[in-house]
Amino acid sequence: LSASNSLPLCNFSISNNDSSIYKVIVNQTLYPYNIIEQQVGKLLHAGGHFVPTTCRSEQRVALIVCYRKREQHLRMFLDNIHPFLQKQNLDYTIFVVNQHGNEDFNRAALFNVGYLEAMKLYPFDCFIFHDVDLLPEDLRNVYKCGDQPRHMSVAVDKFNYKLLYSTLFGGVTAFRLSDFIAANGYPTVYWGWGGEDDDMYLRVVKKLKKSITRYPIEIARYKMIRTHDHTSGTANPHRHTILYSKYDYGLDGINTTNYTIHRVTFYKLFTLINVTLPQEP
Ligand code: NGS
Fold first, then answer.
1. Fewer beta carbons within 10 angstroms: which end of the chain, N or C?
2. pLDDT confidence bin for 170, thresholds 50/70/90
3. Dist CA 134 CA 240 (whole Å)
4. Of all atoms in ligand 1, which is nearest to the CA of residue 239?
């Protein structure tokens, strides 16, 4: 411990204008897990945890991925995200929160589960909530938290690298622990596709009384993985009603996240949290 305390603080930054330094070559080859482990897992501790050895990190980052039946996406994600985060010299852990069962997908509640379970394991101070199909393309897109919640996935190739609308808060977001707690986390009442990210945006503005921040559009670039091993969930018909109902965010969120853990498994490349979310009719 004393040895690591004497290390200098990690400070990753790229000031160089040479794009060959910050541009990421996204690898879309689909490898089996054991090959990915060999390629990018050498320096990992159990559960997909990396700690820089040459410097001391100021933040402990939990990267929480919501997941269900997207195995190809997950493999490509892991193959790309580990080298990306290691180059940024971060103390990070990857959590994959898998929604077990046949209930509608609840992306936002899975993020809360990831937060709650991660905090039982390690004193994280930064949470990055991540879709499994988004791969960052620029190393200057640093996976750290700041004083404001950050929308990370500003420019996605599927949308021609344009921000769809100014309050968009989907894809990838980053929250300081204190901000996430003050927002009461993500909502739990959005089952199926859509609205939960807009709800989180409103929590930041109305409950936290903060604004979101973004890295520049030429930096916050992502490739969306396109494979055919999945079907997207059906849109939630109630999403607009809930979103505009102006309900009390203190009454739904972290404090009402209802879930049953089946198993937490510490794989080499990630910590898998298998969970069911009881869905009220
Ligand atoms: C909005 C959805 C968001 C969604 C965004 C982008 O309309 O949840 O589109 O979707 N809000 C509502 O439905 C209320 S995308 O084109 O990326 O699939 O994130």
1. C
2. very high
3. 25
4. 14
Q: Does 187 contact ligand 1 (Cβ within 6 A)? A: no
Please state the atom number of ligand 1 nearest to the C-alpha of residue 235: 13
Instruction: Give pLDDT, residue 246.
Output: 83
pLDDT reported for residue 230:
64
Average pLDDT, the chain: 95
Q: Is 239 in the pocket of ligand 1 (CB under 6 A)?
A: yes
Distance 37 CA to ligand 1 centre (A): 34
Q: Is the CB of 240 under 6 A from ligand 1?
A: yes
pLDDT tens profile 189-244: 999 999 999 999 999 999 999 999 999 999 999 999 987 666 677 899 999 999 99
